[in-house]
Structures are given as C-alpha cells and as structure tokens.
Amino acid sequence: MRGFFITFEGIEGSGKSTVARRIDRLLRDEGVDPLLTREPGGTVISEDIRGILLDPDRVEISAKTELLLYLASRAQLVAEVILPAVNNGRIVLCDRYMDATMAYQGWARGLGEDLVRDFNSFAVGPALPDLTFLFDLSVSEGFRRGPDKRESSGIQSRDRLESEDIFFHEKVREGYLRIAETEKKRVMTIDASLPLDSVVETIFRNIKSRIDVQSYRG
After folding, report:
1. CATH at residue 81
2. In whole angstroms, what is the distance from residue 150 CA to residue 72 CA?
3. pTM confidence score
C-alpha cells in the first residue's frame, strides 16, 4: 500500500510546527508509525543547508542562490526520506515543503511562479503532497506569537528570513493564499488564530475523513 503525504504550510509563527508534532502524537496514539520531518532539513545534508539558509549573518545570499539551496535541501530529503517512506506505506508529515518555495522565493522574492513550479517539479519528482494544511493568520499576529516572543524571551534571535521586513512577509502570506485559491482540492486553509486544540481537532478530523488511519497501523 502506498503511503500518504501531508504537508503543513504557513507564515512565521502560524503554529504549523506545533500542530504537526501534535498530529504525529495523535497518529501514534492510534497505533500508526508516521514519519515527521521538516524543511529545510530532515537529513544530514539538508540540515547543513538549513544552517546556511537561516544564518542571519548570511545577508549576501542572493534570491537565486536561496532558491537553489532550498531545492537542493528538498531533493535530498525526498530521495533519502520522503519517497522511501511513502513507497513503504507510511504516513509522512512534513513541516513546510514545495509550497513554501513558491510563496517565499516565487512570490515574495519575485522569481516567478512558473520558474519555481518547474524547479520544484525537478526537485521532488513523484513526491507530491496528497494533502496540505495552510495555517493562515495576520503577519503581525504571527510575529507576536513566534519570532517576537522568542526574541523578547531570550530563547532565540530572529533568523535570516524572519529578519526580512513586514512587506516581505505580507507577500509571503499573499503567495500562500494564491496557492490555496488555485489548488483547492489539495490545500485546506486553516484559521490559525483559533485556539490550538480547535485547530488540531479540525486537522485530525480532516485527515481521518481522507484516509483510513487504521489501515496504516503496523
């Protein structure tokens, strides 16, 4: 049986990473052994690339270099982790994937949707998401919950992308909403301003309506 590939997308501070971990635990409570990974990252090579991409001191990275680094990280993750897991019948959960590149580099960086779509296709091959949850909320609220909160608490300073201006992040959100509008069968938009438990419940219910979770038990 082929596995099922789910991605979680959204702007900074939207809660997607937290929810992805909660969904992973709920699936495990059902006796399923999902694979939870992230982008950029998920392999030794991809994590090394992540370090370069998010380093706030790497201000010299051009838009084209940024795009190609994300694609390299993704291609390695697909070859080493995602495709083998899906082919082995596992449910795969990925915190960000190809839609992030469309929103951040294609739309916000202005490299173009057609170019990014073609490059994404080359990088992922047959490893296309079956279902994507887009966590949507205002940029100001996302930063209040995420980067601003972590920075003011002394937990973590802003990374290179979080350090971009508000206009950039508004463009990212706009890019994500364009994707949701054009790919309604795959992308489900989630109101990320709702309470966490409500968001988790909505997503888990939607997953169970799309697939027979019991059939993925080990």
Report:
1. 3.40.50.300
2. 29
3. 0.95
